[in-house]
Amino acid sequence: MTSDTTVRPPSHAAGQDWGRLNSRLLLVNLSILAAPVAMFLASLAVTGGDTNLQVIITLGSLFVTFLVISGIGLMRLFTTRYRLTEDRFELHTGLLFRSERSVPIGRIRGVDLTANPVHRIFGLTTLRIDSGDQSDAAARRLALDGITKAEALELRGRIIALRDAGRARPVDSDGVLSRLDWSWLRYGPLTLWGVGGVFIAAASAYRTLSELQVNPLDLGIIKDLENRFGTIPLWYGALLAAVLIVVLGMIGSTATFIENWAGYELRREDGGILRIRRGLLATRSVSIEERHLRGLELVEPIPLRWAKGAKLNAVASGLGNQEDNRRRRALTPPTPRGEALRVAAEALPTGPGLIERKGLLPHPREALRRRINRALIWSVLIAAVPVGLGLWLGSWLVITGVITGVVLVPVLVAFAFNAYHSLGHLLRGRFLVMCSGAFARRTVAHQREAIIGWKFSRTPFQRRVGLITLGATTAAGEGVYHVYDLTEGQGIALAETAVPGLLAPFIERAPDRG
Prior knowledge:
This protein is of the alpha+beta class. The protein is about 45% helix and about 25% strand.
């Protein structure tokens, strides 16, 4: 597709002209072949210019792999055609395996734009059209991977205009709800996944070097560290390694925050659409229709909670399956809790305090006892591992296990109390508010009329103490939102009050004995 190709509006015989991907995509696919060359040069730098047959075979395999990927991309460039008609969007692609797919305009739920760093270099973007079905991603999503940003914006505008034709649309609602404040960067290191990212990166680097027949333990920097710290006590080395991993994890989390949220803006656009734009290297633009917004979720992991921070997510239908929903639902980055509550009040204008925990009804004390018992059981099981090994390998492991148990009991019991105090629920106007979580407290406010079913479940331990878990089934967000550890009477009363009549076919009322 040349840069002057356009998609004509319906009044000008839309659908008669087929569009094609931009020719700049040719350069993108050819640039992919530079990756194995760069890896070869990097291997020469690491090994000091030495190479062997294994390295050549590995890099040759990578080159063939990237060649195949580039060939597939070129085939997509030359065979992809698309068009927008008054009632559907059509996409034809493939040569040997021809695919012809279309989505009715009325079923389109999301039109998102993403651009990875390579696409941004060449001025391209990817437009994704999602029908919002809870089915296989390939069956419900169409993607145009390689059109200019101007073409993508124009096409998105025409799709939304066709979809909303004849529908009452809010007016004079355009405005920014939130923008990135770089002082929020202090919350970047407090996300929980950073330490795990260090282990993943180390494992990936080790495997890559091993494939290139390079022993990481023979590298100069590793030898230098071994010479410097090889004689220190084991406990000190373990403590030093733990501190280093935590520091690297915090640095990685901060870098991820910058990449994900640089340029962040949450805007309400004309037509009742919430638009979230964000990203430094890979840019993303996600749209959520307010008429599909069923509620909000406030997430407070423990590190963020200690720093008085939180994240705000949308509970909306039309965001795809659970994986897509988790990728697209974020309304704010980790931000001050007050800012998250302010955005919540503007994004879902039902009055302040909708997702506040103040006033939530507590749960039975049996729920606390369950969590304390669980904490004690986990403490014993974890401590039993070194104790069991110590009976075979040496008494020092037995001592280690005992110390581990003594430390874990108060820590996990404290988490048990924290998890219990997080429990709560309340009917707040048109919304059912639910709160739970130990490591990450989640407060969800969900529209009562959007609840389509109830799910009652109980484990053998819950059955023994007379508790149940009530699940609110919905077509939005996670699909089911739970109210944990209620008595049977509380659960039935809550379900019947929240959505009157929904349980009526399943309730057998006792006869009046009066």
